[in-house]
Amino acid sequence: MRIRGVLFWLCTLTISAAVFVGFAGQFHPIGDSFAAFRLHFGAAAVLFWAWAAFSGRLWAERVGGVTACVALGSILWVAIWPRAQEPQDGITVFQHNMLFRNETIDAVVAQVAQLNADVVLLQEVLPEHRVHLEQIETYSTIQHCDRYAVMNNVILSKWPALQVGCHNRASWAQISTPVGPVTFVSLHLPWPWPASQALAVDRLIPVLSALPQPVVLGGDYNAAPWSNAVSQLASVADVVSVPGLRLTFADPRFWPGLPIDHIHMPRGWVGAAHLTGRAGSDHRGTFATIGPLPEPVGIR
């Protein structure tokens, strides 16, 4: 009984520590790594809270209850606020990490063509994949950066590009849209810790800060929406996330998924988004409709 009690104590404290470390990304990248699994740790805290309540372990019940409330409460807040609002005549954007070793590229091309988004932001695009993407006659502009192995990022657009650029973690294009010039960025970051996400963010910040406004970011951030890395990028680019919580990484080992792919729109815009199919990738795609609010009509 004593051994069981010690194990229960250790498991409860471990789950609680995992949740609260996930709030410390601004101090160390390991925080953002734990933050990506907040949903899983929160679910585990609920189970241990129920077990503690059933077995009469008051201290564990309190610790598990607080941990579950903090974890799931922060997730719920992101999921429901702000409210999604699809703009009239908005810009449609499709973002997808298509997986460099995807053996069903035809399925990716078919999904892109079927969704028919105004702008497409793709990650992990190999040079040989471009041949397939160029078959989609809808898109007159294809911005690609082929010098970065499997981390290539591609932008497809129905509208012409005014200027373009490359970075080792992103490609960007300022596009002439019906609402004026908008800079679109397709980016792909490494995992936080023990990988080099923090360094990649530090190197990407000067690039984003120099881009012409307004900016739309989209890609595989390998970071949760509540992470420090996402907060840094959003602040520098002056963007906000398209509302909602989307579990985009669909590897069954991490069921029900991880919310690590995002689309960010200019501050002051509104938008709504939904998940699409995987098309042979380990990520689901995200289809969003975004746009500025109409200017209020003055009272005469």
UniProtKB/TrEMBL annotation:
The keyword Transcription regulation does not apply. Pfam families: Exo_endo_phos (PF03372). Residues 95-283 form the Endonuclease/exonuclease/phosphatase domain. It comes from the Bacteria. The keyword Nuclease applies. SUPFAM superfamilies: DNase I-like. The chain crosses the membrane at residues 34-54, 63-81. GO terms for molecular function: endonuclease activity; exonuclease activity. Keywords: Endonuclease, Exonuclease, Hydrolase, Membrane, Nuclease, Transmembrane, Transmembrane helix. InterPro entries: Endo/exonu/phosph_ase_sf, Endo/exonuclease/phosphatase. This is Uncharacterized conserved protein YafD, endonuclease/exonuclease/phosphatase (EEP) superfamily.
